[in-house]
Design brief:
The protein is elongated, with a radius of gyration of 32 Å. It contains 4 helices and no strands. Helix 1 (2-22) packs antiparallel against helix 3 (51-78). 0% of the residues are buried. It is mainly alpha-helical. It has helices at residues 2-22, 30-33, 51-78, 84-87.
Length: 115
């Protein structure tokens, strides 16, 4: 099951790459390079949805769905509750020997407690 979904995911990714590369840019002229758009809208002129933009939406949704299903299958196959810390052997002694902290050094000068 995992291999089948992975194969579908790879094929859908390849189709998504092809569909995105076939599209033309919104501002392909020289004025678009410097920020001059044909309309005063925030994101440029909005045209009708072409077949390539609909295919991009479809393949994008398919990639997201495949990724979600692959991640769910991967966590089910991995076994929940296992981690690297649980699989390493535990030893009773610490890795480094613990040495006591040195005593604080008292200065030679004593402070006068005069009133």
């Amino acid at each position: 099951m995992y291999a089948l979904i992975l194969a579908v995911h790879i094929i859908v990714c390849i189709f998504l790459i092809i569909v995105v590369l076939l599209q033309s840019g919104k501002a392909a002229d020289l004025a678009g390079a410097f920020g001059g758009m044909g309309s005063q809208t925030a994101f440029g002129p909005r045209g009708s949805a072409t077949l390539l933009s609909k295919a991009t939406t479809f393949f994008g949704g398919a990639v997201h769905g495949d990724s979600l299903s692959l991640s769910i299958l991967a966590t089910r196959n991995a076994g929940l509750g296992t981690s690297v810390l649980e699989t390493t052997p535990q030893k009773g002694a610490p890795a480094m020997p613990v040495t006591p902290a040195p005593a604080p050094v008292q200065s030679a000068r004593r402070r006068c407690r005069c009133r």
